[in-house]
Task: structure prediction
Amino acid sequence: MQQIITQKYLALYPNGVEAWTEYRRTGYPYLAALFDSNLPNKIGADAKARTPERFSFSTKEHQGNPNMSSLSTLLNGPDKGGTKLWWVRSGRPVQ
Result:
């Protein structure tokens, strides 16, 4: 599976968002460690994170949407880049 997903990841090079989604979904391909170890702190992620798990909502959305009060319950965590989405499986390969 790792070889197949790595080839798919390379084929998706022109479509970065889809490649990022495949990485988040499967955990493959294994990515190199970050050069700057402070970057995960800026998005509220674990120090071992290679990429963000999700995008945060904008300030405008927080101010204008009355349903944002229930956001942390719906996300199972804070509105940060390190909060895993509901569909992320627990057995996903970890680097």
In short: The longest helix spans residues 16-26. The two ends are 15 Å apart (CA to CA). The chain is about 40% helix and 0% strand. Helices lie at 2-11, 16-26, 39-43, 59-64, 71-75.
